[in-house]
Amino acid sequence: MRTIIALATALLLTAALAGCSTTTIAPPDRPRLDPPAAQLLLDCKLPTNLPPGEMTQRDIERYWGLDRKHQLECAKRHGALRDYIVDRDGNLRKK
Q1: Dihedral sign of CA atoms 30, 35, 37, 38 in order
Q2: What's the rounded Cα separation, in Å, for the pair 94 and 90?
Q3: Which member of 53, 64, 66, 75 has the lowest number of beta carbons within 10 Å of its beta carbon?
Q4: Going by C-beta distance under 8 Å and a sequence separation of 6 or more, which residues neighbour residue 1?
Q5: Using an 8 Å Cβ cutoff, are 37 and 77 in contact?
């Protein structure tokens, strides 16, 4: 009879201790700061160096057009980079 009481007491004590154990809580997901695509981080091209001497109207228009093309490409890239950062940071604030 004593062994049954001792066994029952041991089981109850074990059950009580198991009920008091701490449960592990998973930490929240860490925010991810993914870097932007490498293409968005390229440097902008500098204005074209003009040749020495006189230029024709055609040369002037060609160099101007080339500089304008580079400027538009740079503006699009910076706009895409800005949009990426705004979107990424906005998603981080939602979490």
Answers
A1: negative
A2: 7
A3: 53
A4: none
A5: no
Domain parsing of the chain, residue ranges: 33-95
> What confidence score (pLDDT) does residue 90 get?
85
Instruction: pLDDT band for 29, please (50, 70, 90 cuts).
Output: confident
Separation CA 70–CA 67 (nearest Å) = 5
Which residue in 81, 83, 78, 85 sits closest to 45, CA to CA?
78
Q: Tell me the per-residue pLDDT of 36-78, one tens digit each, with 9 for 90 and over.
A: 999 999 999 999 999 999 999 999 999 999 999 999 999 999 9
Give the largest CA-CA distance in the chain: 117
Question: In b/e form, how buried is each residue of 47-57, taking b as 16+ CB within 10 angstroms?
Answer: eeeeeeeeeee
3-state DSSP call for residue 17?
Answer: helix
